[in-house]
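pasting for the record
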Amino acid sequence: MRGHEHSTNANDLSGAVRGFVVQSGSVHGGIHVSGPAAREEMPPPRQLPPSVRITDRTEEIEALEAHRRRATEEGHPTLAVVSGLGGVGKTAVALSWLHALRPSFPGGQLYADLGAQAPGGPADPGEVVARFLRALGVSDGQVPSSLGERVALYRSLTAERRLVVLLDDAATAAQVRPLLPAGRCVTAVTSRRRMPGLSLDGGHVVHLNPLSTEAAVELLDATLADGRVTAQPEQARALAVLCAGLPLAVRIAGARLAARPRQGITTMVRALSEERERLEALAIEGDHDVRAALDVSYRGLPPEAGRLYRLLGLHPGREFGIPLARTLVGDEAVDAVDALHDANLLVDIADATSSERYRFHDLVRLHASERAVQDTCGEERARALLRIGYHYLLNAGRAERIVEPGRDSLPRDFDRGVDPASIATEDLDPVGGQTAADAALDWLGRELPNLMAVVRRARALGAPELAWQVADASWPLFPRRKVYRAWIEVHEEGLLVAEEEGEGEAVCRMLTSGALGRLATGAPADGLALFERAAASFEERGDALGHARTLNYRGLAHQRLGELDSAAGLFARAAQRLPALGDIRAGALARFNLADVALARGRYAEAADDAEASRLALEAVGDPYNAARAAGLTGRACVGLGRLDRAERELSAALSALRAQTAGFEAARVLGGLAQLAERRGQPRQARQYYREALSLYASAGRSGTAEAVEAGTRLDALESSEAAPPPSDSPEAGPPGAPGA
């Protein structure tokens, strides 16, 4: 993980200097300065969906704009809430307003669907902020782990930037608050609730009522654009009344009529009227007419599109792509999706980072689910649910193998009559300058809500094993993209189902993988309890290798708890047993951890020996990341031993390798070692530079509270307190004004 890195060049310096510094006067020979490559400038994000035609909303948009002007004059950011019934056009109004502001807000546009009505629950603000940070140019490695630090970085990046933000379908004010930018930005929130709580944050609520009958007729006329409304005004008015003034219903009815240019509006009116009574079961908030409009539109679909509509109604997640449709209906998928989209039954949500992608409007999704129950036999529904679950399992497994090709995964047998060859494959190919691993992780991140939905509904899907298998296949995403809530949740659910099914191997995997999530979120005591349960389970099953691996895991938990004696004992046992049981890599990692404890205790010779042995073993098994960590640990131990030349070689090599892998926390530890090396050599300026960069990386990694970060801060404070004092005449950094600095 890579933090913020700054470079400054000047000949006159005063006060505190942050980042890299090169000060020069007369220079003889060449100067070579190396550091991390400058971040490539990113274009402003343009995430807003396209706007659609709106009717009779002039008053509401004028109210929004008046609020913006007032907030700007008073020097405040603009926050507006557009509330109203589902299908009333909240998002359309917000988009119309925000798109008109683009010339005045060159900083870009951010968009998030907060999923108040999503099957899996509202979006996590921490994960939304992380997506916003990446859109603003923050790399994955620089995204902090805690919500507080993410929000702080988000506010810092937006303080001087003029951008607009749309937070669509919000559940609560508490969900929205962490997503509010700083500075002179404009934020629009849409919600079915009025959100009075946001008034405390300067929010102005504009509530949308259904359209008047006249406005609905006008929208119908714009949708048809063929003169039928003018020719049949009374019928058009009757249809508008049946649509209850909801733009969604008007557009659906209009799309149905537009597909049949010779059909009179009277036919649609008759159809809606006849459907009203028998659609009572689908009513929400009395919207009988909307349900009738949806049902009439559904009945007008081609057979294969109607079948796909029903089967997609079984989908446990909120969004889906063409490959999922192919898994459900085969080669007819593209034409069927086009028919659904043309009928306004699917919303196209594709952006520049993904291929064709769709979701149902909430009311449409409910309708599709109901039609699946009414119009599809139980056997076909069960088969479709299985295919949906296995679709995500198969493709998550493909992504897993790309990111971690040598990982020992749980068995993934397709043993319920689903042929893996019939499952459509998702596009995991890298684009632009992406690596294959980045592309696979992007897919896992984009599909995470669907993967979580499959885990939660594994029993209902008829395949309980999907709970732990999908959790296991999704593993590479969790530590790399810091999706901590999902990490813990899916492993808890996977563990529960594995225990119910008596699957011992899966129980052990869910315990250990879930416990690592607890360590990552700063809950080592909870992690230790899970590791100990796993150890008992491995022992009961007679799995000596699995039990030996838990020695290392338990040692990590004790180390995080500050119990170094217990940690060292467990690491030593693991380092001895694991290679003997055939796991050389895990044994080398245990020895690395043993060296880390020795370094913390000031036992530098032990630390250097164990770290070097670990590095050699890790290089032999092809693990360059952990080998670089071990080299850094060797270098830090050599600083303590006074072997300064070797320390410089080890630390420099480690820093270069870890930066290339954007391993921010480990790079920060190495920078701390280089800073101490500079102090030992009497180079306080160089030491200050290293400490500052290390602290920036610790903060970006959400590890500012670790012992190493605290020590780096203390040492930097001590150096800066004496910065103003002139160096002694025999100091390596002393010299006439303008002499080259460190």
